[in-house]
Amino acid sequence: IRCWSNIPFITVPLSRAHGKSFAHRSELKHAKRIVVKLGSAVVTRGDECGLALGRLASIVEQVSMLQNQGREMMIVTSGAVAFGKQRLRHEILLSQSVRQALHSGQSQLKDMAIPVLEARACAAAGQSGLMALYEAMFTQYSICAAQILVTNLDFHDEQKRRNLNGTLHELLRMNIVPIINTNDAVVPPPEPNSDLQGVNVISVKDNDSLAARLAVEMKTDLLIVLSDVEGLFDSPPGSDDAKLIDIFYPGDQQSVTFGTKSRVGMGGMEAKVKAALWALQGGTSVVIANGTHPKISGHVITDIVEGKKVGTFFSEVKPAGPTVEQQAEMARAGGRTLAALQPEQRAEIIYRLADLLTDQREDILLANKKDLEEAENKGRLALPLLKRLSLSTSKLNSLAIGLRQIAASSQDSVGRVIRRTRIAKDLDLEQVTVPIGVLLVIFESRPDCLPQVSALAIASGNGLLLKGGKEAAHSNQILHHLTQEALSIHGVRDAVQLVNTREEVEDLCRLDKLIDLIIPRGSSQLVRNIQKAAKGIPVMGHSEGICHVYVDTDASVEKVTRIIRDSKCEYPAACNALETLLIHRDLLRTPLFDQIIDMLRVEQVKIHAGPKFASYLTFSPSEVKSLRTEYGDLECCIEVVDSVQEAIEHIHKYGSSHTDVIITENEKTAEFFLQHVDSACVFWNASTRFSDGYRFGLGAEVGISTSRIHARGPVGIEGLLTTKWLLRGDNHVVSDFSEHGSMKYLHESLPLPQRNAS
After folding, report:
1. pLDDT tens digits, residue range 13-54?
2. CA nearest neighbour of 524 among 473, 579, 564
3. Which residues pair with 164 in a beta bridge?
4. Which domains are assigned to the chain?
5. CA nearest neighbour of 289 among 271, 313, 315
6. pTM of the complete model beyond 0.85
């Protein structure tokens, strides 16, 4: 517990020996001492006269939040010149207007020219006001701020350096935020050739170099440089091919072309990079990011400290493999080559993968055993997830069978003509199937998902990025290696990529220019998190699998217990397992109802009573907390309904549009249920567990979709395809079809080409 102004707060445990910079973004959350450098473009308004108050308030709020977590925050700020310019302009205009009014004796004023204001005078006029503003803002969070003005000479004089160092340490010890600025009122003009002069010397000629020098002097863990661009680009921002550099390594500056400096301030991006590299050599991690963008400036600092992919991170540790952006580009290029192969060649790759799953069975199971042992030793996985993680000979055999089904059914998936229209004479239009592009599949605990999804991506000609959970790292590694071995027979090894970097799922979901579709495979929480994080990328899947079985008055005694047992107990962790059992009121206190309860007790299923069911019982099981619960275990809810119509209404209100079942011998009632329940899968007298791509004959599935656009239910090859239009003409132009043109639209439907019977 730390206190200030008699207000206690909990601190974050932060400790780190200074000397080496952080190697990965994910380590930034351990930063204890942080310098935030605010560029002139961040602090000032667009008219360069006055401060951007809203933006500044947001930055102060974020710095205060981190300070209150127990971190030691320092700010290197610009803005004194802009604030002073605003004040001096106001004074000059006021003075001129008074003189002109006295001279002319008239109230009407002529246009007045404002003289060019000298920067040092502006700084002198603006420093006190800028500091007063910071003090007022920090006071709102019960934090004290202190101003320190420095010049280049203060770092060259050993005694002044020690004094500065001591002052800053004492302020930090007292939980005060130091606000540092170059003393622009007295600082000499920058010398053109006095920039970086080695590891131990840096000329303080702007706030970038000041921030770097200060960060190293104070053994700071992290330097955040906020500017008016997203970070460092490989070419000037705004140019057609400019790409944001996620991680910048020393030596990479040769591959970067710098543009002009910002609209205000003394530094440019080149100065920022030089200062950042100098700080990095001194053991301080650096991130350059945008502090002006209205959508991100409100949380840019906290996002960086949390390790999110914001701006450009400077690191001395270069990863052995490609970045995730490079992997996505490789997957796109590989996917396009894959789509251009003959159908027989894609099928051949999948057949080869199926053979490898059985031929390399022992190596796969050995790798899986390592994952299981590590998970059990760490105790981080619940029993249902351990079951999902486990592979066996029978599972691998089933996988191989499913893959061969995919290969056999994929012969005419890509490039299939689904519509032909004769627009006019010699002008024919075709709609054909094509791959979606690059898929990102994120999955938890289930290594068997990797070959399934890979086979479907191969069959549909899509590039694929796979992000598996850490708990299945060894299994995923060998399965991906075998997938790439199979792809190599036709030279498309790069089409399927496994992301092994420390990439956070939220960061992957931001790659909207590289990924076309995200498919989550895992818990409802994972799916919800991805749907929330995905910015501009469609997400295919379901957040919950709240599946219902409705037992009608005309249900068969023999069928009821079999279907319910299979739906709930065969694999309770599956998304297509029964979660809510709806029973017609007339079946209460009948032998059939007793059989259902006895069977659930024998199977050790914990029963939760719905509100209506509980009202019929003297001693009821625990009443359900929510009728929208996915248990994922040997638990279920029982609720009573008065009719098939009420059952449908209950499903629509509390279900997740996944899979719902009716058990009845009344065909009319069954058809009414099938037609009116608005779910992806609706069954009559069959287990919910049939909702599966393999059981549907799709070979496998990338997931079960409950969305209403594109694909719904178990998603196989067809769900991974979209279409494009091909128009073949002969010197056709639209003007020929005008009122007085020579051609007329026909719009005749043409027969489709025969599909491959095999």
Report:
1. 444 455 688 988 989 999 999 999 998 888 887 766 678 888
2. 579
3. none
4. 25-92+117-187+202-314 (3.40.1160.10), 324-413+434-499 (3.40.605.10), 548-701 (3.40.309.10)
5. 313
6. no
